[in-house]
Amino acid sequence: VQLQASGGGLVQAGGSLRLSCAASGRTFSLYRMGWYRQAPGKEREVVATISGGGATYYPDSVKGRFTIFRDNAKNTVYLQMNSLKLEDTAVYYCAANNPLMSKGFDYWGQGTQVTVSS
Fold it and tell me: Which one of 19, 22, 70, 97 is CB 3.0 to 4.6 Å from 7, fit for a cystine?
């Protein structure tokens, strides 16, 4: 599986961005997809995940502001980010997991920079 993330950029605090992650392969609908982020000097952290069946997970830091959703017909997963905060600044990565093969995310995209300014 190859992943191509896009949609990052510079946005003011309180604004919105939508990230996209296009995946290769014919079994995308089976994959659990996720978005992670890594800020300078910090560890990578999960932002959102969505199962093949549509179940979602968000940490408290983004719950109510971020929404992950997928379009299986387009092999694409999205991350809608609203009410962005300065602390959301990071490189965002999409990831894919085949639940039939492993429990962790085995495939990673190249990352897209999100910068939130005051």
Answer: 19
Q: What is the pLDDT of residue 99?
A: 87
- pLDDT tens column, 38-57: 999 999 999 999 999 999 99
The token duo for 46 is: 């999960």
b/e sequence 6-31, b meaning 16+ C-beta within 10 Å: ebbeebeeeeebebbbbbeeeebebb
CA distance 82 to 47: 13
The tokens describing 37, both together, are 């982020």
For 22-73, give the DSSP string.
Answer: EE-SS-GGGSEEEEEEE-TTS--EEEEEE-TT--EE--TTTTTTEEEEEEGG
Average pLDDT over residues 11-35: 95
φ/ψ (deg, to 5) at 88: -85, -5
